[in-house]
Amino acid sequence: GDVLKKRKIAVLGSRSVGKSSLVIKFIEDNFVDSYYPTIENTFSKSINYNGVEYECDIIDTAGQDEYTILNSKHAIGIHGFVLVYSVTSRKSFEMIQIVYDKIINYCGINSIPCVIVGSKIDLQPSRSRQVNSNEGKELATQVHAAWVETSAKANTNVAQVFELCLGEIEKRSPGSKSE
Ligand code: GDP
ipTM score of the complex? Predict the structure, then answer.
């Protein structure tokens, strides 16, 4: 019979880049336009990817900065990582490499299943973009991660984030395929 496929995904990045908004949009299809700093939350959702059903735990973290020590809960037993920056914040983009390095150093491996997400693209007409698409793509290529730009507010590429993440996870674990 079919084996239940459980996957744990951690969402990391600077504070207020829109991690919670992205996760809540995906889980509840709801966008709340009020800011409150997140406490950590774990959401469960079944995701169909390539015709396979995955029971996913999505950990929405409170956010990191350069001084944050990586929480073992955000590294051990995690199958895939979603690293979020805002296209309107250069500093949040720089934080991606820092968080990425902390994860690979902690885990003692040289690459992780990962999606790099440039969020809040709906804001770019009104506020100037601080990170262009090519920079995002280049970073993703360097660290062998997937990359996508999103808007939780406009519902752009929200589900794709988690599908890409499952893709990265499955790519690196041959033998976990259902056939
Ligand atoms: P977190 O700290 O990374 O979890 O960020 P939040 O999800 O709490 O979002 C921080 C702020 O950015 C909130 O005021 C959100 O409403 C806003 N925000 C999040 N995603 C988007 C988006 O896609 N577009 C716009 N315009 N604002 C967003």
Answer: 0.99
